[in-house]
């Protein structure tokens, strides 16, 4: 690299269920250089090495593209990171979390780039893993909410989760997510609204931040020349009131980071009131309030939470063109996970049968 050439950084992965842990990895990688390219594997590649992904490659490309630290995505990146790929995209080095990734035959997928000195590591985000999120969906308890005492089921689950037959894997195990002001600062844009900005307010749970949310926020962002989008996130108890069951799957702290990582959002209100009040609209000098095509559940007293913005004539329905909801995603993930587990148990049973047969042969 010449003295003035920007440092180009490479990351790659499945990015199947993108959560703030992935975003945080990409944030750290971007900070190591000037331009971040993210390689995303195809459905076919993932199916070969890990089993079929929950999201389609198109959905996964869109999710990664929406993360604000990503400058470019490379669709259909090979599963094993090679020097050839780094050279093709003109990248100086690749960055990966400090956990290991093994290929189908048990080799470190980053071996080649490590040998060439073009590998850097970033810290894995504590307190979240896809495995844990799936566990919360399957359990249907509410212990993962920030304001509920942990119940025994969840504690048992966190004790067992991610433990293989040989005890405990440090990578898929569960540790409690601890929010700090530092994390929020790292994720926040830090931009104040500028004169001439259109301040747009949207509110919701934004649970398990997904492509349906991305499509909606992108549409909202396109409504103005200079949009400043503020997302109001409801507290866990409020979301549970209108969604029921074990929703939200992610607690308020986790949802805050997920939404802050999105390039279409400028600011987040942590624990926004369910009713969009005159106070809130005046405080943020809101020009426009948007809601998607999903049902609006009435407030506790039966009133319309959007009564005030409608009275002011600043309310607008926005069709994201996506029918994806958190409910649908939970169904998809549970179905996928149950198939995944069944397949693994079969594989394990086969291996055990072989071992048994070998033992019997030896005994003869």
TrEMBL record:
Q: Which organism is it from?
A: Rhinopomastus cyanomelas
Which top class of enzyme applies to this chain? Answer: transferase
What protein is this chain from? ethanolamine-phosphate cytidylyltransferase
Q: Which InterPro entries match?
A: CCT, Cyt_trans-like, Ect1/PCYT2, Rossmann-like_a/b/a_fold
Gene Ontology cellular component annotations, sorted alphabetically: cytoplasm
Q: A GO BP term, please?
A: phosphatidylethanolamine biosynthetic process
Coiled-coil-forming residues are 335-364
Gene name in the database record? Pcyt2
| Protein keywords | Coiled coil, Lipid biosynthesis, Lipid metabolism, Nucleotidyltransferase, Phospholipid biosynthesis, Phospholipid metabolism, Transferase
- Mind telling me which CDD domains this protein's record contains? CCT, ECT
Q: Where is the Cytidyltransferase-like domain?
A: 10-134, 202-292
What GO molecular functions are on record for this protein? ethanolamine-phosphate cytidylyltransferase activity
Report any Pfam family annotated for this entry: CTP_transf_like
The record, for NCBIfam families, names: cyt_tran_rel
- Pathway where this protein functions: Lipid metabolism; Phospholipid metabolism; phosphatidylethanolamine biosynthesis; phosphatidylethanolamine from ethanolamine: step 2/3
From what superkingdom does this record's organism come?
A: Eukaryota
Q: Which family does it belong to?
A: Belongs to the cytidylyltransferase family.
């Amino acid at each position: 690299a010449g003295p003035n050439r920007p440092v180009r950084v490479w990351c790659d992965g499945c990015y199947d269920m993108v959560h703030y842990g992935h975003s945080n990895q990409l944030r750290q990688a971007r900070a190591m250089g000037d331009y971040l390219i993210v390689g995303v594997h195809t459905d076919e590649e993932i199916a070969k090495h890990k089993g079929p992904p929950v999201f389609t490659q198109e959905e996964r490309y869109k999710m990664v593209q929406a993360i604000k630290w990503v400058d470019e995505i490379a669709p259909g990146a090979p599963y094993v990171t090679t020097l050839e790929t780094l050279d093709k995209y003109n990248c100086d080095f690749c960055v990966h979390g400090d956990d290991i990734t093994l290929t189908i035959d048990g080799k470190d997928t980053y071996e080649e780039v490590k040998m060439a000195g073009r590998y850097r590591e970033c810290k894995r985000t504590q307190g979240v893993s896809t495995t844990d999120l799936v566990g919360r969906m399957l359990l249907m308890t509410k212990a993962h909410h920030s304001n509920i005492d942990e119940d025994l089921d969840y504690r048992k689950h966190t004790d067992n989760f991610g433990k293989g037959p040989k005890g405990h894997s440090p990578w898929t195990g569960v540790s409690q997510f601890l929010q700090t002001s530092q994390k929020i600062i790292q994720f926040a844009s830090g931009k104040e609204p500028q004169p001439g900005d259109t301040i747009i307010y949207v509110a919701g749970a934004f649970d398990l931040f997904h492509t349906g949310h991305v499509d909606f926020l992108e549409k909202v962002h396109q409504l103005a020349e200079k949009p400043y989008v503020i997302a109001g996130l409801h507290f866990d108890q409020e979301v549970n009131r209108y969604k029921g069951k074990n929703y939200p799957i992610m607690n308020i702290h986790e949802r805050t980071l997920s939404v802050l990582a999105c390039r279409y959002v400028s600011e987040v209100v942590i624990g926004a009131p369910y009713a969009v009040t005159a106070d809130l609209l005046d405080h943020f000098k809101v020009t426009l309030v948007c809601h998607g095509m999903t049902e609006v559940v009435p407030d506790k007293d039966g009133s319309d939470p959007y009564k005030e913005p409608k009275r002011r004539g600043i309310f607008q329905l926005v069709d994201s063109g996506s029918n994806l909801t958190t409910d649908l995603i939970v169904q998809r993930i549970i179905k996928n996970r149950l198939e995944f587990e069944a397949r693994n148990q079969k594989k394990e049973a086969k291996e055990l049968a072989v071992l048994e047969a070998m033992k019997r042969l030896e005994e003869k």
